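Homework help board

Subject: predicted structure for assignment chain

Our instructor gave us this sequence and asked us to write out the predicted structure in token form, then describe one feature. I got the tokens but I'm not sure how to describe them. Can anyone check?
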Amino acid sequence: MVIRPDGGAAEAAKKVFQHLIRFENVGLRYGMGAEILRDLSFEIPARSFQFLSGPSGAGKTSLLRLLFLSLKPTRGLISVFGKDRSRITRRELPHIRRRIGVVFQDFRLLDHLTTYENVALPLRVRGREESSYRSDVEELLKWVGLGERMHVLPPVLSGGEKQRAAIARALIEQPEILLADEPTGNVDPPLARRLLRLFIEMNRLGTAVVIATHDLGLMEQVDARRMILSGGRLDIYD
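My token output:
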């Protein structure tokens, strides 16, 4: 069965016509090399769900880093939450990034914190009392299959477990946008489907989702927009 992830939310978003991120003729190169991304123009609407695919080396991770504001474009305009990326100050940047959940393939877990503490960290940084979020963190860890691993340190976790912990950490604040780079790449098919259902549920609650993946079978399970990156350019199929 193919799932339409956002129910009526996508239609509601079209009526409001709110775009969270907008690219206009964006290009990216590293150093003096050739551009790896060229003339990218697209928008990420509020409450939308899209897959980002393309061959290895096409620049998917670089595009995600542009979306997360951890890279600056070589040329072109990027606006995030209505603000020109070039005018976002260093002081403003952390506050804007808190509205974006991100799962990169290097996970970025802190080895001296338990799985539970890693997932709860964004909430602790914001000054919330543990009593206000403990049950939410524990429930989310159980959902991603880490209920029995929440009190161990990351060096003890497998690659797939670290990936699931990173997903839980990205989702715990219910971000306005979720960027996920191959989020099901290190898990078995049943767990991949479970994680996909979690992403769909977050989308129904209002999060715009961008999933970079090579898994055609995963994409076929969801009636969602497809963004295909090849040769530095992006084709979009709604």
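Reply (TA_rk): Your tokens look well-formed. For the description, you could write something like this. The chain has eight helices and ten strands. That's the kind of observation they're looking for.
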